[in-house]
Amino acid sequence: MTATIEPEVGKSRRRKEDERLITGRTRWTDNIVLPGMLHLAVLRSPLAHAKITSLDTSAAKESPGVLAVYTAADLDPDGSIGMPCAWPVTPDMAAPRRPVLAADRVNFAGEGVAVVVARSAAEAHDALEAIEVDYDELPAVLDMEAALADGAPLVHEELGSNKNALWVFDSAEAGTGSNVEDAVSSSEIVLKRRFRQQRLVPAFMEPRACVVDPTGAQITMWAATQVPHILRVMSALTLGLPEHKLRVIAPDVGGGFGGKIGVLPEEMMALLVANKLGKPVKWNESRSETMLAAHHGRDQIQDLTISADADGTITGLKVELLANLGAYNGLVGPGVPILGAFMFNAIYKIPAYHFACTNVFTTTTLTDAYRGAGRPEATFAIERIIDELADELGMDPLELREKNWIKHEEFPFTTVAGLTYDSGNYEAATEKAKELFGYDALRREQAQRREANDPVQLGIGISTFTEMCGLAPSRVLGSLDYAAGGWEYASLRVLPTGKVEVTTGASAHGQGHETAWSQIVADQLGVPFDDVEVLHGDTQSSHKGMDTYGSRSLVVGGIAVVKAAEKVVAKAKPVAAHLLECSEDDLEFAGGKFTVRGTDSSTTIQDIAFSVFSAHDLPDGMEPSLDSDATFDPENFSFPHGTHLCATEVDTETGRVKLRSYVCVDDVGSVVNPLIVEGQVHGGLAQGIAQALFEEAVHDESGTLTTGTFADYLLPSAADLPSFTTARTETPSTTNPLGAKGVGEAGTIASTPAVVNAVIDAVRHFGVNDIEMPLTPMRVWHAVRYGTTFHTRGAGSEAGGGLGSIDASGGVQ
């Protein structure tokens, strides 16, 4: 009897890559040392907005170990180089040039004005102090609403306005729904709310870095980036380099969360300096530089109007956003809030919808993609206003959600925003979450505490969410004026000994690609898991790809691997038929073995690999190779969903918030590796909860970042969070052969509104219907005492996320 091979897909395998990552036996960009390598340090503006009236580098040039000091006049004398933006969201979008180094004006605190080249990093940084710069300070532009007012100071005088673009979607005009003004005017309930998405720092573990070696036949760049392929293309276009002479390598990368998706001035600077000097150079930023000059995330003002009938049936939704882009357009920054446009309707059957987003320039660090990129912002707003509507109607918030959500039998369902959700079961996920959470018992306890006027009140928060991920499909992205496609590439090389090398265009920075891809190939080809090697992050070994962001790795990149494996099997089949002396039609393939139907005559794909290598006995005209590649362009996004329930205890006398329990039931379709999924969910929950309770990037009135270190920008540790209860339901995607949906951003998207809703629920009977994030003890206490929250509009807060510390039980104190 033939032993049954246990499938790899669905198995909780420990990640192959973890041993080298955990033990440090790997190579990060800053570990790279090349013969004769020089070091770069960037002088950054201390002012948010100013004219540069003089710049003297002469003393710095005489500093020990210094080889050169460059300014904008040296690196870009004709002012022609500008950082790329791949997402011009409207034809008339304002596009000011973002220089490699500021020439005559700085537009945010942290913008580079000069670069020192020295024999050591210490000498380069020491020499920065010898550079003399005189500034004529200009008014800072921080408040988005004030920035749009007549007569406001301008970030870019040549534009004549601080408005970047206005992007509008209207369901009546698009033919996906009815007129929202009619819905609002004819509805019995109309509710308006304003929500604030505070500015966040991606706070990845490894600071940004790059090394450029111009001394070979090619220019080689190592970079701590999520997007080596995009970086290569954009570097060639930006600097006029021949693309085939540029090799970009992303070695192991210590986290990204969207924060390493950009094409950086410092990377262009390193390329320019290396080419000028003909020597390798390295730039590696400090943590403070990361906080100051790496792009930030979120930062929106959200005005929502929702209308409903008296029975709770939602009739319309109107969304007006102000989105802070900072001083310049990021690589995809202008499009980030536009992604949210398709998710404000969430899981609900809303018949009328209008969305308008105004992107605004301010004198702050630019914003761009941050874990979820537009989807967390949308989910937060809709889940918050659903709770507000439930309170207005006197309904249980779960009951209101169930009344309006898409039922499982209604899939596929085309939403009012024009997307077609292929599969889902919100009822199953919610029922499972309620059971694990003890929802009814907690509601009873909540009522008892209120009746007893307990100083520690219990709140229950709900977030039932879906997201669009797996960016995807190219034609849709093109219709939104996105410059690139949504496809992904993979190739399989079957070696003579039957081992398999996989190259993937998806570039990992902690997601577990090497393990998951090995599991997929092991099942597709029937080879042992340990016989598969996954290569990624090098534009020479994996020559094309669209890289990693937007929860697209598995549902796009993984499917490209499947398609390439199918081609390997198709190539092997005629060889197997020839060796087994049968017709191809008589062959069955399973478990890595071709078998003549109805017999025990068989051969393995690994045996075939050696036969192809030797090429002694192949069918006439057959190429001696099983190697195959595939490019997969998905037909649709994928739509994971879930229900997250949070219980918080709020001390009304101190404002202290304690996370008592957190339950989430996510549906990410078919799962390749449950252990990886669990890790992604846990990490996502930590980041979403951190936005709700801890994190905020704050600028003072002059535009100086006051949260520029981890002493001021509060990140939670594992000890600050509760043990999560996680579970899954499974409705496979119908648009890819694995049935998979994205998981990398789900926890972040769902958790923030769950936590905030829980805190508001605990103190709503004090007249509180909103507290601005992060919900620090001061803000919670102030809301309980006065029924209002502190509001910030881009120019700082009472103390930001840095107010308060946390006890080991997960409470802020």
From TrEMBL:
It comes from the Bacteria. This is Molybdopterin-dependent oxidoreductase. Keywords: Molybdenum, Oxidoreductase. Residues 23-139 form the Aldehyde oxidase/xanthine dehydrogenase a/b hammerhead domain. Pfam families: Ald_Xan_dh_C (PF01315), MoCoBD_1 (PF02738), MoCoBD_2 (PF20256). InterPro entries: Ald_Oxase/Xan_DH_a/b, Ald_Oxase/Xan_DH_a/b_sf, Ald_Oxase/xanthine_DH-like, AldOxase/xan_DH_MoCoBD1, AldOxase/xan_DH_MoCoBD2, AldOxase/xan_DH_Mopterin-bd_sf.
